[in-house]
Amino acid sequence: MTRKILKSAQNNQALYIICLMLFLVVAFHLLVSYLQVSYQKEFSQSLLSKAEDISSDLGSSIQEASALSPLECDSQTINKLRIILSKHEFTHDLGLIFNNKVNCSANWGLLADSTPLDSVLYHSPSGYYFASQVANIFPVAAKYDITNKGSVIAFTINAPFINFDQIK
Question: At residue 1, does pLDDT exceed 60?
């Protein structure tokens, strides 16, 4: 009889340890899941905030440049584009586009040759045109993301989120 009681006590202990381990595994899993979801929400909010900052910066720089009069590729307009560009953190360059070609920019001045952009631009309902990783605009091997509205074109660096690996 003592053997039965002892065996029953051992079975109860084993069952208790198994239940405790199962509870700890489930609790740990729930905690890790909660922390992961929390981090992902915070990261996505930070990423969205940066995207909105970049969009706002581009829109603002294009709007300021569009207000210039006259919109010509002369030295005065190019200097005004440079002043506008200096106020904007995410706009890499500003230029004027005529006949689907960039004629001048704040960083490069007058451009003799540039690639026609009519085949690479995607239209948005808000009147902006966009393109990604466009090359041969300037006399360097760099690729730019571009935003165009009317006669003004804004350039951002390719993949502006490439170094976005920390929550800020």
Answer: no
